[in-house]
Amino acid sequence: MKREPISETSDWTFELIQEYDLEIADIAKSFRLDTYPNQIEIISAEQMMDAYSSVGMPVGYNHWSYGKHFVSVAQDYQRGQMGLAYEIVINSDPCIAYLMEENTMAMQVLVIAHACYGHNSFFKGNYLFKTWTDASSIIDYLVFAKNYITKCEEKYGVDEVESLLDSCHALMNYGVDRYKRPYPISAGEEKQRQKEREEYLQAQVNELWRTIPQLSGSAANESEFRFPQEPQENLLYFAEKNAPLLEPWQREIIRIVRKIAQYFYPQRQTQVMNEGWATFWHYTILNELYDRGKVTDGFMLELLISHSNVIYQPPFDSPHYSGINPYALGFKMMCDIRRICEDPTEEDKEWFPDIAGSDWLDTLHFAMQNFKDESFILQFLSPHLIREFKLFSVLDDDSKKELEITEIHDEVGYKRIRELISMQYNLSMNEPNIQVHNVDIRGDRSITLRHVQHNDRPLGDTTQEVIKHLHRLWKFDVHLESMRDDVVVRKFTCPEEKAEDAKAKDAALAKAS
Amino acid sequence: MSYIVDRRLNGKNKSTVNRQRFLKRYKKHIKKAVSDAVTRRSITDLESGEHVTIPKEDISEPVFHHGSGGKRSIIHPGNKEFIKGDKVPRPPSGGGGAGEGQASDSGEGIDDFVFQITQDEFLEFLFEDLELPNLVKRKLAGIESFKFIRAGIVNEGTPNRINIVRSMRSATGRRIALSAASKRRMRGLEVERDEILALEVDNRDQERLKEINLEIDKILNRIKKIPFIDTYDLRYNNYIKFPQPTSQAVMFCLMDVSGSMNQVMKDMAKRFFILLYLFLKRNYKKIDVVFIRHHTSAKEVDEQEFFYSRETGGTIVSSALKLMKEVIDDRYPASEWNIYAAQASDGDNWNDDSPTCGKILEEDILPYTQFFSYIEINPRRHQALWKEYEAVLANFPETFAMQQISDAGEIYPVFRELFQRKQA
Question: Which of B63, B83, B96 lies nearest to residue A462, judging by beta carbons?
Answer without folding.
Answer: B63
